[in-house]
C-alpha cells in the first residue's frame, strides 16, 4: 500500500536547491522593483506603471509563498496555487477599476519616465524569467510562478509601447489600453492556475 493514501498525498520530495535560490533572487528583485515603479507611477501619473508596480508586489509575495511551501505536501502546494490564482484575478479586477478612473479623469502620463522605468523593469523580469525557465513545468505551484514571471516580461514590453504611444499622440489612451491588456493577462493566467490547482486537488481527493 506504499503507492497510495497519505504516502503519495502528504509527502513531498526534497526541494531543488537551485529552485530555492532562483526564488530568493526573484523575491528580492521583485520587491525592489515594486518600490521603484510605485514611485515612478505617481511621478508619471501612469496607470500602466502602477499596474506593473502592483504586479511586482504580488509577484514578490508569490515567490515568498513559493519558498514557504517548498518541501510541503503536494496538496498544500495545490491549495496555495489556488489562492494565488484568485489573487491574480483580483489584481486584474483592480487594474480594470483603476483604468476606468484614469480614463474619467482625462490624465495624460509622462512618457519619458514610463519608458526608462519600463526598460529597467524589462531587464529585471527577463533575468528572473530566465532563472525560472527550467522550473516552468510541474505542479500548479511551479506553473503559477512561471506564469507570473512570463507575464511580467510581456507586461513591461507593453508599458514600453504605451510610453511610445503617449509620446506620439499626447493622449492618455495608450496608457489605458496597456493597463487593460495587463488586466486581461492577469485574469486569464489566474483562471489557468485556478483550473490547474483544482484539477490537482481533485486528483489528491481521488487518491485518498
Explain what the structure shows.
The protein has 208 residues and is mainly α. 84% of the residues lie in helices and 0% in strands. It has helices spanning 6-9, 17-44, 47-69, 74-105, 111-132, 140-169, 173-207. α3 (47-69) packs antiparallel against α4 (74-105). The protein is globular, with a radius of gyration of 19 Å.
Radius of gyration: 19 Å
What is the total tally of β strands?
Answer: 0
What proportion of the residues form beta strands (DSSP E)?
Answer: under 5%
Any idea what the shape is? globular
Give me the strand/helix succession.
HHHHHHH
Sketch the major β-sheet.
none
Number of discrete helical segments = 7
* Low-confidence residue ranges: 1-12
- Class per helix and strand makeup: mainly alpha
What is this structure, in a nutshell?
The chain is mainly alpha-helical.
Salient structural properties:
single chain; 208 residues; mainly alpha; disordered N terminus
Q: What are the SSEs and their pairings?
A:
Elements: H1 6-9, H2 17-44, H3 47-69, H4 74-105, H5 111-132, H6 140-169, H7 173-207
Helix pairs in contact: 2-3, 2-5, 3-4, 3-6, 3-7, 4-6, 4-7, 5-6, 6-7
Amino acid at each position: 500500500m506504499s503507492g497510495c493514501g497519505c504516502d503519495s498525498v502528504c509527502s513531498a520530495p526534497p526541494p531543488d536547491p537551485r529552485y530555492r535560490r532562483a526564488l530568493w533572487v526573484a523575491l528580492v528583485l521583485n520587491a525592489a522593483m515594486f518600490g521603484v515603479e510605485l514611485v515612478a507611477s505617481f511621478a508619471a501619473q501612469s496607470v500602466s506603471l502602477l499596474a506593473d508596480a502592483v504586479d511586482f508586489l504580488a509577484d514578490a509575495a508569490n515567490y515568498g509563498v513559493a519558498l514557504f511551501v517548498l518541501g510541503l505536501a503536494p496538496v498544500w502546494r495545490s491549495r496555495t496555487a489556488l489562492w494565488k490564482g484568485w489573487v491574480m484575478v483580483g489584481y486584474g479586477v483592480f487594474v480594470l477599476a483603476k483604468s476606468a478612473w484614469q480614463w474619467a479623469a482625462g490624465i495624460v502620463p509622462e512618457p519619458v519616465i514610463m519608458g526608462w522605468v519600463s526598460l529597467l523593469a524589462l531587464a529585471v523580469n527577463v533575468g528572473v524569467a530566465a532563472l525560472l525557465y527550467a522550473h516552468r513545468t510541474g505542479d500548479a505551484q511551479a506553473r503559477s510562478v512561471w506564469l507570473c514571471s512570463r507575464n511580467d516580461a510581456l507586461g513591461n514590453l507593453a508599458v514600453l509601447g504605451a510610453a511610445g504611444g503617449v509620446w506620439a499622440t499626447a493622449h492618455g489612451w495608450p496608457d489605458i489600453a496597456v493597463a487593460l491588456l495587463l488586466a486581461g493577462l492577469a485574469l486569464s493566467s489566474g483562471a489557468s492556475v485556478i483550473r490547474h490547482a483544482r484539477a490537482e486537488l481533485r486528483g489528491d481527493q481521488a487518491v485518498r
